Amino acid sequence: MRRKITALLLGLGVAGVSLLATSGSAQGHGYADSPVSRQQLCGNGTVRNCGQIQWEPQSVEGPKGFPAGGPRDGLICSGGNQRFAELDDPRGGAWPASAVRAGQSHTFRWRITVRHATTDFRYYVTKDGYDPRKPLARGDLEPQPFLTVPFGGRLPDSTVSHAGVLPQKSGKHLILGVWTISNTGNAFYACSDVTF
Prior knowledge:
The chain has 196 residues and is α+β, with helices and mostly antiparallel strands. The protein has one domain (28-195): Distorted Sandwich (Coagulation Factor XIII, Chain A, domain 1), CATH 2.70.50.50. It is 14% helix and 29% strand. It has helices at 2-22, 38-43; strands at residues 30-34, 61-63, 98-99, 105-112, 118-125, 147-150, 159-165, 172-181, 186-195. The protein is globular, with a radius of gyration of 19 Å.
């Protein structure tokens, strides 16, 4: 009897370890808060009816390799994660937008809840003529990031800030921040609606 109980407990332990090892990413990592991201707007209650993202704004993780890889068009703001599909909903173009100044320096900031070895942070902006009433697609973005901050595999602090010059734009646009992790197959995505 003792041998059967020991074997059962060992089997349950192995199953538990296997489940943890194969369950994917840990809960919570980081999000952009300058300019304020959609997930932060949901997390702080500024925007309602956000689903699960309101409880875990730091969890917008998806495959890395953007723009050649990564989440598919229409699912970019959620990182391709269906649990956070509300981030891909353009809400008729009514997401609150941060006021920014074209051609001026801006301090971009991320709040990091779980630190990861980092390749870089990259920022893309939508092209002129962008329609904020439609889900974000690659074709909506300028092909090259306007700012890339290399990290060389280092661990970021709990708050990461870096300055960059905003592109020459006018009107409502979207800035996509991509935090690429160096030692996993994933990146974190943050969509920030802005008005130049």
